[in-house]
Amino acid sequence: MEIPAMLETGRAGAAPVADAPCGAISGLRVEGVQQYLGIPYGTARRFETAEPCPPFTAPYRAEARGPRCPQIRRMAQGDWLNFLNDPTPTGEDCLVLNVFAPDIPATGKRPVMVWLHGGGYISGSGGSPGADGSHLAARGDVVVVSLNHRLNAFGFTYLPEIVPGHTGVNTGMTDIVLALKWVRDNVAAFGGDPGNVTIFGQSGGGSKVAILMAMPSAEGLFHRAVVQSASSLLRMATPERATRCARLLLEELGIDDPTPEALSAADPETVLQARLRAVARNDGIDDFRPVVDPGTLPANPFEPASLARSAHIPLMIGTCEDEMSFFLAAAGVDFDRIDMDMARARFAGFSRASPDLAGAVLDNIRAGHPDELPSQILVRALSEQMYRRNDREAADLRTAAGGAPVWTYLFRWKTAALDGHLKSPHTMCIPFIFGSVAAAAPLLGRPEQARALADSVMDTWLAFARTGDPNHAGLPDWPVHETTTRPTMIFDDECHVAMDPLPETRKAIAACPAYSTDSGAATLGAAV
User: Fold this and answer.
1) Which is the catalytic residue, given 203, 231, 232, 436?
2) Are residue 29 and residue 44 in the same domain, yes or no?
3) Is 203 tagged catalytic?
């Protein structure tokens, strides 16, 4: 078996060049890793399905990250958030990807890991410092790919009921499929194995992983999947609701006749502001998101037809213990000033439970954690309602349907940031999975302990990418998921397996309406 070589790898200081089917691509050498940044993989008119880029006629210089999709920043700023922030400018020509490969000759085909960024379907990029693929590529002898795709109104405006014959549906997701096809066709030039591709994503990226498992066009393009801290992975928008949001957007843009020219006329910032007004008119519910559609997404990801489609895909799925502390902190909430009455009111507004039920839920959780602040009781309830409940249901459904195994995990490693109020928040897993503990130092603290856990977590994701089983010598034995005992790997200073962790919170939340993007997440500034 001959492994395609990257050109000029033997010359110190020379730019590495990958001779790929799409054309020659020159990159950078950074601390033992070859980086190829901002490679275009597709082109598209606004709201239309993307097409592959034509082959390069001259070597493409992939030395800087490409544009992010136009977006409005929704989170507050702070040093502890900097590892998530990509300063790259935005633009609609955002169909770009990055490749990270070890700067040593490959001894065999390397596993490929494709990262899907968070930020819901609204914001984010594949170029944040916390998701730099260099450490993972070097430690595991793998090829890491990250990518940008269309988001918000640019990726999820549903027009078939408004524009006869319109076929650009779920374009933010079909962009990702196009990127996966690029990986299939070109990754061997970087030493990667197109027959061993793992997709992994956090938050909205985790939901995108789940959706790809249900998309016919993505079949055969990946072989393992990791869903990290995903909340909106069970239910997508309906065509009726998505059409309503699209009509409101066109009204806000003043478009009566939605010709391609009219749809492309407004500048990106105008579209972004029009989308905000459309969502406000839609009772605050953001239906600029993936929609169940016969041609692209025939069923929700964990319905029977989708489960049958993805039955052969091994799955890892899990959350952080205190997911929602991230959103409360980013929204500027003072954790010390929340009392139990305020916590009950906030939870009732979020969960759409009755005030009496919301109060009973928080009181039940507090009984098991009598020494915690009311704000932490609220975080426990919100985190269970928005994240763990849905991820657990997804794991149960996948397991009950049979097929490839499922493993579940819970991040419990605590940070002292923000006077210890964050604990184990949303996004905490990212620097451990990528080994980017230096970039996330203001969040993590405890550098020696963070590095030790990062090594173990990286080895877990790498083992799964290599073999489809996350077990390795640095972890205790991790059984596959089972719907009654629910064995769960707890990632902490001392990793261990717990059976059905946090049962009191699970039981308390079971009486509440299930979370979906129709719930009151917007009242907390929550990204899904």
Assistant:
1) 203
2) yes
3) yes
